[in-house]
Amino acid sequence: MTQNVITAIYVDLETNPLGLTARLSHELAGKPVLRHTVERALAIDAVSSTHILCHASQRSAVADLLADLPVTLDTHQAPAPPYQDLVRSSRSWGLDGWRGGIGSLCTFDEDCHGELLAALQHKTNADSILTIPAAAPLIDPELCGALIAHHREFIQASELTIVQAPPGLNALVMSANTIQQLRQIAMPPGALLVYQPDSPVADLTGREGCYRPATEIVHASGRLLADTQRSWERIGRVVEAGGLNWDAARIAQWLIDDNSQRIDDAPREIEIELTTECQFATNDLAYPRGEYVSSRGPLTVSAIESVTSICRRYDDIRVMLGGFGEPTLHPQFADICRQLRDAGALAIGVRSNGLAIPKAAESALFETPVDVIEITLDAATPETYQRMHGRDGFETVVATMERLMQRRRDMQSVRPLIVPSMVKCAETLDDLEQFVDRWQRAFGMYALRGISDYGGSWHPERAVRFSTAPGSCTGCRRARTRLMILADGTVTTCDQDFAGKQALGNLRNDGLEALWQSNAINTARIGAFSSLPLCQNCQEWHRP
Predict the structure, then answer these.
(1) What DSSP letter does each residue of 118-159 carry, written as one string?
(2) What is the pTM of this model?
(3) Which of 4, 26, 159, 484 is 20 to 30 A from residue 229's alpha carbon, by CA?
(4) 3 state SS of 490
(5) 3-state secondary structure of 99
(6) What are the two backbone dihedrals, phi and then psi, of residue 118, each rounded to the nearest 5 degrees?
(7) Residues 277-297: what's their mean pLDDT?
(8) pLDDT exceeds 70 at position 14
(9) Strand 269-272 to strand 172-175: parallel, antiparallel, or no bridges (unpaired)?
(10) How confident is the model at residue 516 (pLDDT cuts 50, 70, 90)?
(11) Whole-angstrom Cα distance, residue 155 to residue 5?
(12) Which comes out higher in pLDDT, residue 233 or 477?
């Protein structure tokens, strides 16, 4: 029997899924964004009806935007889903991919309201629901139709069907059973794709639940949802080039070309080293410490102001407080977190060793709140911790993480996300499975990163590295999206330059946006490394 599939589009004219001001009523090529999206949804032949889920207070405004279109307006008075802050904090670190960020949540989690979908499914008795983001004016009806056809063909094997496509070209189909399951667990659909130690299965991308489109669609990245200033400008460039008449494959190829040629006016992520002060010895195998890193900082408030200034102009910038020291030891840590939040930084992260976070700094993590705290544990046992960091401390760091998690529970808050991390090297390989399973069970997330030799400038004796870099370098991907500020105000090419050897300038004398467009960093972006000693030996250039 043919599966009855309907389309659902969750609409909020005031606030978008990232917590920013919605742009659904903004005009694009003479038509509101929402109307573009809905008209394209109506062109999908494989669905029986199209439903707009909007708050009762917005019904009249939504109806005006969609006047004369054959859709059903289903109003509600439901609160935001309980996982909203989780999705926002997670997805802010992976805006340009369909999957990524903290906890591996997905773009289709951003505007998925489980309670409303369950109510809609019950009301319509639909077999499956296709969900489309409201801010997706370039969504491809043919790609959505192919996704639905795949879902129908393989529904006995997988009741949730995804497609690997950039945000704005991506959609999701879920069966009635899956929708009701998500309602019961009060989690977004991406949670079903996350590795679970107690019930491990192959990733959905390698099974029947994944529709595989054209190669360029899978490989492309770049947000095409009209929800940030950067993505709004990107959509405008696509439309100006003729993209309203293109299919998903051609749009994806445009994204690939745009990413290889264009440099944004501002970085997407800024890492800030607040101080080089820390509690580790020089024989640390995971990161340069002590004598390898000259004493710098603490970073001045005026330097922070240059970051807050750029955050006020660009609404999707993520800030990581990290570098080569312990950021929570900065005497004005709480003030800095508050300034970044007030300036509109989309997401704030803190990378801490977790050994001795001062009480005032710990309070700031929750009061700001920051979005994520990465704890660089780098071990699953005290013995490995000793070998990696040259000192005892495993139990102390684990106790810190558990205390932070308990404090979050007591506050009944989703933020900050607490993420134990580990570098992969010969010393940690035997700990890998135990580390992943423990923290996935306990916190629902963890992070793994490759160990680096920082462009050949740092050589711990025992840490064997596993290079995954492709054979030929065509330019540094990281330099196209990230910027690094050291604790003395030096802005350098990237987070591999712990000694400031490739300085672009200093915030005491130079503007952050001017340094972002400087000749030195542009040289790294195009792969002309002859004048950049670290870049010549770097193995990290291919990482996003």
Answers:
(1) HHHHHHHT-SEEEE--TT-TT--HHHHHHHHHHHHHHTTT-S
(2) 0.94
(3) 484
(4) strand
(5) strand
(6) -65, -40
(7) 84
(8) yes
(9) unpaired
(10) very high
(11) 12
(12) 233
d(CA 133, CA 53): 11
180, 121 contact by CB (below 8 A): yes
Q: How confident is the model at residue 345 (pLDDT cuts 50, 70, 90)?
A: very high
CA 494, CA 481: separation in Å to the nearest integer? 10
The residue type of 489 is G
Question: Which tokens belong to 457?
Answer: 């400038």
Contacts 24+ apart (CB under 8 A), 54-58: 54/10, 54/11, 54/12, 54/13, 55/12, 58/11, 58/12, 58/13, 58/14
Q: From CA 8, how far away is CA 6, in angstroms rounded?
A: 7
pLDDT at 102 exceeding the cut of 90: no
Is omega for the bond preceding 369 within 30 degrees of 0, making it cis? Answer: yes
CA–CA distance, 351 with 326 (Å, rounded to integer): 8
Question: d(Cα 254, Cα 241) in Å, to the nearest integer?
Answer: 9
Residue entry with tokens 């991919």? 97
Q: What's the pLDDT at 476? A: 85
> Helix, strand or coil for residue 233?
helix
Query: Among 417, 383, 403, 471, which residue's Cα sits nearest to residue 94?
Result: 417
| Block residue for tokens 């929708």 | 179
User: In 3-state terms, what secondary structure has residue 310?
Assistant: helix
C-alpha–C-alpha distance, residues 68 and 164, integer Å: 33
Structure confidence at residue 539 (pLDDT): 80
| Interatomic CA distance for residues 49 and 32, integer angstroms | 21
Residue 53: alpha-carbon gap to chain centroid = 26
Residue 27's pLDDT is what?
98
Integer CA distances (angstroms), 105 to 84, 98, 182, 310, in order: 12, 9, 14, 27
- Helix/strand/coil (H, E, C) string of 168-225? CCCCEEEEHHHHHHHHHHCCCHHHHHCCCCCCCCCCHHHCCCEECCCHHHHHCCCCCC
CA atoms within 13 A on the CB side of 271: 21
Parallel/antiparallel/unpaired status of strands 5-11 and 50-55:
parallel
Cα separations in angstroms, 136 against 149, 436, 539: 21, 35, 36
> In Å, how far from its chain's centre is CA 212?
22
Q: Tell how far CA 472 is from the center of its chain.
A: 27
What are residue 316's phi and psi, to 5 degrees? -125, 20
Residue 141: asked if its preceding bond is cis (omega within 30°), the reply is no
**Alpha-carbon distances of 410 from 56, 366, 403, 413, rounded to whole Å:** 33, 11, 10, 8
Residues in the chain, overall count: 544
289-294 LR contacts (CB < 8 Å, sep 24+): 289/324, 292/458, 292/498, 292/499, 293/324, 293/325, 293/498, 293/499, 294/499
